[in-house]
Amino acid sequence: MCEQLFDNPEVLAKYTARRVAELCCDAVDKHGVCHLVLAGGSTPKHCYELLREMNLPWQSVHIWFGDERCLPIGDSERNDTMANAALLAHVAVPPEQIHRMPAELGPELAAEAYAKLLAAAPVMDIVLLGMGEDGHTASLFPDNPALQDHRLAVPVYDSPKPPPERVSMGYAALNAARHRILMVTGKGKAEALARIRAGERLPIAAIADGEWLIDRDAMGIAA
What we know:
Blueprint (H helix, E strand, L loop, with lengths): L1 E5 L2 H23 L2 E5 L6 H7 L9 E5 L1 E3 L9 H8 L20 H14 L5 E5 L22 E4 L9 E4 L1 H4 L4 E6 L5 H8 L13 E5 H4 L4
Parallel strand pairs: 1-9, 2-3, 2-5, 5-8, 8-9
Antiparallel strand pairs: 4-7, 6-7
Helix pairs in contact: 1-2
């Protein structure tokens, strides 16, 4: 594991925003485009709020989503709703370059449609991922059949967190990306992180060669 330790989530978010900006500009310089995969959850939100204040080549950025909840478009619990409020409504990414997961169609149809989009796209440049208290990432949960699905996007049923139906990028897409940034914050993540660092293969541990950005609480270090 390539680990960096931060005092608190605020410092971690600032570093992550700077790192994403650096990688984004580098991708656009090299390839003329940057394909950025956004994470859901609370940990990345402040990073997005910081990114919207940065002078990035947004016209050359394509936005993707690591996972989505099977809820109606515009539902407050959808990841793309959060990303829109925190970032996308404030930057000049062309609407046709925002590739939302059509999770409102249900897990199977949405996964099939997104897998086709991913298959036609270049490699992802940056993938942002968080971690749940059970060691899940995106919507890849422990002991869920989706872990064994080798498609680029996979249907998820019986999620232990509501809603039970979701869509997720699979390991095939996540691990093919050029850069994977894993953000882990909060005391609630400490047990799962300790198990992973001891060698247990919780779902996020299958993400290859990621940059692990961890705060002191998640590492179990007192301030």
